[in-house]
Fold this sequence. Notes:
Blueprint: H1 3-30, H2 38-58, H3 63-99, H4 102-110, H5 117-127, H6 129-150, E1 154-159, E2 165-170
Antiparallel strand pairs: 1-2
Helix pairs in contact: 1-2, 1-3, 2-3, 2-6, 3-6, 5-6
Amino acid sequence: MNQAERRLLWFVCSTLAAAALAWVAFQVQQEGIAPVVLFPVLVGALLGAAVAGVRQFTALPGRGTTIVAAVVLGLLVVAAQDYIGHRQRLRLYSDELRAGHPLAAAAAAEGDFRPTFVHHLQARLRDRPVWWTLDFVFTAAAAGVVAAIATRKQRVWQSYPGGDLELRQEA
């Protein structure tokens, strides 16, 4: 596997891990068992470990890239949780319309009141700006810190032209 293929594999696997973690985090939040500060830190830590683990598996050098990717994916995990919540609310809205609920029918007669994702985010920011900001900060920071710790003295397989591999310790 060449360098470009390994980078693509790392990107795809890290993104899939972030998406899966966002879905699981949303489900846990729906159960109401997500402690205010600890939950974003836990989600970020799991994401940082996943990104660093995928880096180890794909044998990519570049500790800084891994840390930056973990932070960016941490931000995306929080946004993805909100998007999943938005999609669930749209599904519930459609179910109410199909069930013929009188208020839903009246709303449907007035036009399409389905909020867009942007409107959903604006409402979330208006309702709980501090929590939303802290969720972003704690998740991204935890992901970056764990990725930094996990990649600090990580052994990485380095490939060279001709297919030779060498195990080296990256600082």
